[in-house]
Amino acid sequence: MTEPLLSVKNLRVEFPGPRGPVEVVRGVSFDLGRERLGIVGESGSGKSLTARALLRLIPPPARVRQEALRFDGMDLAAMSERQMRRVRGARISMVMQDPKFSLNPVMTIGSQIAEALRVHGTLPRGQIRARVIEMLTQVRIHDPEHVMGLYPHEVSGGMGQRVMIAMMLIPEPDILIADEPTSALDVSVQAQVLDLIETMIARNGMGLILISHDLKLVARYCDRVLVMYRGEVVEALEAGRLDAAAHPYTRGLLESVPRMNETRRLLPVLDRAWDTEGRGT
Known about the structure:
Layout: E1 6-15, E2 22-32, E3 36-40, H1 47-54, E4 63-65, E5 68-71, E6 74-75, H2 81-87, E7 92-95, H3 99-102, H4 109-120, H5 125-138, H6 144-148, H7 157-169, E8 175-179, H8 187-204, E9 207-212, H9 215-221, E10 224-229, E11 232-238, H10 248-255
Parallel strand pairs: 3-9, 3-10, 7-8, 8-9
Antiparallel strand pairs: 1-2, 1-4, 1-5, 5-6, 10-11
């Protein structure tokens, strides 16, 4: 049997609190091949912290523990920080939620994408500009030479997100983590950005972890779905079978989504009576 590209077993993240440590990611386990995996759940369920823990981007005083955290046969947990810098960006890239807070406001678009290529790539200096233009063209930005000279505040939210995708994909990583990549975009631009990510993933044969609140969106763009509730994976299923979800929390999330032909007077809210351990109170 082929070893998965990424293997996570019993991942835990805790922060110090006034009454002792608070565990916010509790025993998350999954494998990822060259496929599209969605992670869904409410705000605070631990989705983004799980993704950051994979890249070892959670600094002290937080504490991260795991039984296994392996990528392409390598033990990520045992790597030095210097070794991890060769993995981040180059082999596992992460698109953050909002380009306004992720792009450097005092560097031009072209400089930032070129920097990602210089740090993680081996192209001669003379070829970097051509590669940046090619990448901006691939993410469907018209007049890329003009856009290269702009600063982040001079581009729209949709274009900024495409720039972020270009920057993360230009080193040609094996895995792309997309953390709410469309949360700041309107519906029409959301579809364009997600279609773009899907095309790039298929073209490069990469693995994708798509983090989102939107179950229907994840069902459309992913192969499998993990549903997280208060730091735990409560259900894992194929994206195409999302409507057959059995866990009460997943069912509650699905029922809370408005429908195009809505006939209900009131939208249901999550009934957490199923949480017999008291976590839902």
